[in-house]
Amino acid sequence: MSKKVIEVKNVTMKFRMSEEPINSLKEIFTTALSGKLKYNEFKALDDVSFSINKGETLGLIGNNGAGKSTTLKLISGIMKPTSGAITTKGNIVPMLELGAGFDLELTGRENIYLNGAILGYSKEYLESKYDEIVDFAEIEEFIDMPIRNYSSGMMARLAFSIASVVQPEILIVDEILSVGDAAFQEKSLNRMKELMNGGATVLFVSHNIEKIREMCDKVVWLRKGKIVQKGDVGEVCDAYLQWQNEKKLQKK
Amino acid sequence: MDINKVRKFYLIVWTACLSAFLLFYLIARKDLVFTNTYWIFVSIFCLALFAILLRSYLKYKKKYIDYVAAIVYAVYRYGFLISQLVSRDFKSKYKRSVLGVLWSFLNPLLTMIVQFLVFSTIFKANTKSYPVYLLSGVVCFSFFKEVTDMCLSSISGNANLINKVYIPKYIFPLARTISSMINLGLSLIPLILVSILMGITLHASVLLGIYFLGCLIVFSLGVGMFLAALMVFFRDIQFLWSVITQVWQYATPIFYPAEIIPAKYHFIILFNPLYHFIGNLRKCLLDGVSPEFPAYIYCAIFALLSLSVGAFVFKKTQDKFTLYL
């Protein structure tokens, strides 16, 4: 019996979207007075349940708007579900967006500490890993320069190095393997594989079915907030590709 | 959590408590600042705080985490993040400005000089050491304004972070308040310098002013958290708030003496917390005596009421923040 590290149980996430966004006092008064406060309820996730065991890599697939990113945000604790429960065990490193909280006015060095603190690393840890981060990002000579002078590739490399320097128990990845030039992409892909082989439990979102097949043990296919199929990689991926082809044919 | 580090935290707070107690004891004995037996109340307060901490520590050792221990844990867990955010605020605020951190000294001083030039002929006669009177008001009010303005945008301005990484959301208003506190500390230096230049003898009662500054800080944090939560749902608040602060500024005796307000409107300033904080601070600084005992209670009530309302509203609404940002 292996241990469940992430368990998602009957999770439903509803967004209330007013027909026109109400953002000011005047609007809320006028709409409330006229009784026109209408909400469109939108279910981003509808009764979704799955679990991931320790050390497993689970892929999430589905078209745009299927609820993949919402699932990742719920698991990393950024949002709370409308109903249902999510339990996680261990420290989570969400790679949803790299370089969250980078301050353009600060230098690379200062941003390593700032971004690291935001990701929840301790000061001692960052100090011990500082050289490794700089080496991996290959930006040694620019480290004391404000990052507004960096190229976008340099910034992305720095962000990836900070995010991937830890040995997390749970890693959440939202399609970020395409960072930097070809050489760095290969390097970062290797780093990801290293992290996965290091015993981390991984939740992986990608539109690239080949990569999913290569890296994942299990797959969950979402469509309009509901699970269509979950289980073995080969089966689910085949079904998904078949469904996509059928849809293409229908359009024609 | 590492027990040694926790012990260190408790130790620091204990020492602070005890030294405050000793300090007040000494002041009470030597300087007769407390004309009556007020120092007894202060000592009781310090000892009570000490006892609460001791109880929480003993509970913690038995693996039971109460409110106090939760706060200590938050300081331990998020202290590094808060310090990083504070230093970010500071660095990006003064980056690319020539005088840099000097502006923290210059700003209140220049505001004071402008107001002095404008109002001195009107109010000078009936206010002793008017520049100090003015500067103490300016320093306090601009702190309040800075904290509330910064907290106001602390959640909506960090939307990209809040939507991408999990961080307890109270960190943002707290970090902004702490960076303003550093500014406040820096602007106290010109206040003290001007006081000395004006020939005011600094009594030990100046130390009591720290209590009222503390109340001002807690009060501002409470208002700030309330505004930060509100701002997420109604963006109009930012414009409304700048009007409110302006009215508040004129309703507070900053550049005029409180006595010029007609008696029938006097009740208004009695409900103005800033009047109490600033007024009592001036008493400590200018008159060299401790305010009456009820003043301490009033200020504490204002501060704690504001913080609890602010924190309550913030806590109730924080799960919805991501849906509106």
Secondary structure layout:
The complex is a heterodimer of chains A (252) and B (325).
Chain A: E1 4-18, H1 25-34, E2 39-53, E3 57-61, H2 68-75, E4 83-88, E5 92-95, H3 108-118, H4 123-137, H5 152-163, E6 170-174, H6 182-197, E7 201-205, H7 209-215, E8 218-223, E9 226-232, H8 233-251
Parallel strand pairs in A: 3-7, 3-8, 5-6, 6-7
Antiparallel strand pairs in A: 1-2, 1-4, 8-9
Helix pairs in contact in A: 3-4, 3-5, 4-5
Chain B: H1 3-30, H2 38-61, H3 67-94, H4 102-123, H5 130-152, H6 159-162, H7 171-197, H8 206-233, H9 237-251, H10 266-270, H11 273-287, H12 293-317, H13 321-324
Helix pairs in contact in B: 1-2, 3-7, 4-5, 4-7, 5-7, 5-8, 5-9, 5-11, 7-8, 8-11, 8-12, 11-12
Give a summary of the structure in a few sentences:
The complex is a heterodimer of chains A (252) and B (325). With 252 residues, chain A is of the alpha/beta class.
**Count of distinct strands of chain B:** 0
User: Helical amount among residues of chain B, as a percent range?
Assistant: over 70%
- Say which CATH homologous superfamily of the domain at 4-91 and 207-251 in chain A is assigned: P-loop containing nucleotide triphosphate hydrolases
User: Helices and strands of chain A: which structural class?
Assistant: alpha/beta
| Integer-rounded radius of gyration of chain A | 21 Å
Report the major sheet of chain A: 6 strands, mixed
Strand content of chain B: under 5%
Number of helices of chain B: 13
N-end to C-end Cα span of chain B: 33 Å
